[in-house]
Amino acid sequence: MTGAFVAVSQFAVINDKVDEVKEAFRNRPGLVDQAPGFLRMDVLSPEDAPEEIWLITYWIDRASFLAWHHSDLHRESHRFMPKGLKLDRKRTRLVYLEHITE
Predict the structure, then answer these.
(1) Exposure of 32 by Cβ count < 10 A (0-12 exposed, 13-18 middle, 19+ buried)?
(2) Please, what are the domains in the chain?
């Protein structure tokens, strides 16, 4: 996987939907899995900030990620998040990384 493109989306849930969000990721429909260039996804939550979710996706290149990120399937994947979900805008960010080594 060396040389892969990695996108990290971090967000913090600020209402009572944290457990529902985590469950939605556990039961995700897998729409991204068929996206061209997709390699894998990890979803993490820090022990000291359980309201935070870090969504880490691995791609063969940046173009593959951007194609997914701007696709109808990407928008469709958000449909599975709980209704009424509220996020802290100040703790929401998207970071792009180069995967150097395992």
Answers:
(1) buried
(2) 5-98 (3.30.70.100)
